[in-house]
Design goal:
CATH class of the largest domain: Alpha Beta
Order of helices and strands: EHEHEHHEEEEHHHHHHEHEH
CATH architecture of the largest domain: Alpha-Beta Complex
Domain DUF5672: 58-256
Protein name: DUF5672 domain-containing protein
Organism: Mucilaginibacter yixingensis
InterPro entries: DUF5672
């Protein structure tokens, strides 16, 4: 399909009603992103009136309900070529989950379009990161931008790795060798083969943002992920106080999981208390 638009916005939901925080998130999306085609991605047959009442310009994109029945299936949807083909008429996709919040419409200023993937930077320890944990490569996908053609290219090339994956599986079939390798690598090897390197072949649960921002660049060096200091301009998630310092006391374009850090975000987001 020929690309006709720079960017679409994808808002994935799985239930017909919104919480107060989700409504606030959607209002911010309508305020800052309505110049783009904004798609509500929802289970086929779900009532969407609560969403369109807040954002009448939403485009409705029903999908197979099975894709949105669990976190695991949602992650698989975001690793499916079928999903990206729905939006192949756009160059970039902004994922806007309804625990995100956007402060501005100036996406270009963040440099997001210079990369194949950008999201709130990770810290060592991820969800359990200490306040002084170092930044590491990769980024959260709840508020993220990715290049659709690049994602389709990666997913269309995964078959090239299947023979190697099967070879690794044979090695792991030996309990003695498996025990030795796992002991040597603290299980990182087995996790990488089954859960990460083998994301296209195994049924193990994977986090799609780890795949796109950390695994894919190892497999496809041309796939460009924003470095942490650039990503700070785009989004915050964990350790927002520290990220604000690192960003020169400037807010990012948006943030993710803001309700997990209410004491920080209540200064910037109009939450009813």
């Amino acid at each position: 399909m020929k690309v006709v638009e720079k960017m679409c916005v994808v808002i994935p939901v799985h239930q017909p009603d919104l919480t107060e925080g989700q409504a606030l998130s959607l209002q911010a999306c309508a305020a800052h992103l309505s110049a783009h085609h904004c798609y509500l991605v929802f289970p086929q047959g779900m009532d969407t009136r609560a969403y369109t009442a807040i954002f009448p310009q939403l485009r409705l994109q029903p999908v197979d309900a099975a894709w949105l029945t669990s976190v695991e299936r949602y992650n698989r949807m975001k690793l499916s070529p079928t999903f990206y083909q729905l939006f192949a008429g756009y160059e970039f996709m902004l994922t806007y989950e309804l625990d995100a919040y956007i402060f501005s419409d100036d996406i270009e200023a963040t440099g997001a379009f210079d990369f194949d993937y950008i999201g709130a930077p990770f810290f060592k320890g991820y969800w359990d990161a200490a306040p002084d944990a170092p930044l590491i490569n990769g980024g959260n996908s709840g508020f993220s931008v990715r290049n659709i053609a690049s994602c389709l290219k990666v997913l269309g090339s995964m078959h090239l790795f299947k023979r190697k994956w099967k070879m690794y599986q044979v090695l792991l079939a030996s309990q003695r060798l498996k025990h030795w390798v796992n002991g040597l690598t603290d299980y990182r090897y087995e996790n990488y083969v089954n859960g990460y390197f083998g994301f296209a072949f195994s049924e193990k649960h994977v986090n799609e943002d780890l795949i796109w921002s950390r695994v894919v660049p190892q497999m496809f060096p041309w796939f460009k992920v924003a470095d942490p200091l650039t990503a700070i301009k785009f989004s915050f998630e964990y350790n927002p106080e520290r990220l604000l310092q690192l960003n020169g006391e400037q807010l990012p374009l948006g943030c993710h999981a803001w309700e997990k850090h209410p004491d920080f975000w209540k200064k910037y987001i109009p939450v009813n208390t």
